[in-house]
Description:
Layout: E1 2-6, H1 10-23, E2 28-32, H2 38-45, E3 50-54, H3 64-72, E4 78-82, H4 86-96, E5 100-103, H5 108-121, H6 137-147, H7 152-159, H8 163-177, H9 182-191
Parallel strand pairs: 1-2, 1-3, 3-4, 4-5
Amino acid sequence: MSLYVIDDHPLMREAVVMLLRRLRPGSNVIELDRLGGMESAVRQHGNPDLICLDLKLPDTTGASGIHELKKRYPETPLAVLSASPAADAEEGCIDAGADIYIEKSSGAQEIGAALRALLNADGGFEELSPTDSKLSKRQKQLIVMLDRGLSNREIADELGISEHTVKVHLWRLFRRLGVKSRTQTIHYARTHGMLTS
């Protein structure tokens, strides 16, 4: 398993690398300080199974790094770690293709939990038949909560989990249903009889 950490701040990069090595002992964790080294690193170490990307790098502008990585590795889970508050940048990053947005100020435990959930999410995404039988109980709960119009924070409070965990659950649900947004999820659920209303 090849896990890529792209961050130009050495201390942050080392902290994320240590977290990933704890989460996935024996994995090959590749450190880069800019996006430009990605191509040669992939030739040397193989395609990424997870990418942790700092939003602000010397060779990226705005969400350009996310666009570039998602174009090259569309199936690879991409976590953006940023010093910017989620309120400022999260929506733009998710729209650009990031799977999860993590504030660097979250702390090791929260960042670790979000990355663990992303790493564990990638297993057996069978195509869904037009029934909800392949959804977990939690995914069915999420669909109902989305239909109620709850925000990530409200879902987190109601389920007693962190907001990052809610984001990962939603990411898994979107992938399972083959959709990209809350609106598409609700539409899918309604057209496939997953919601009674």
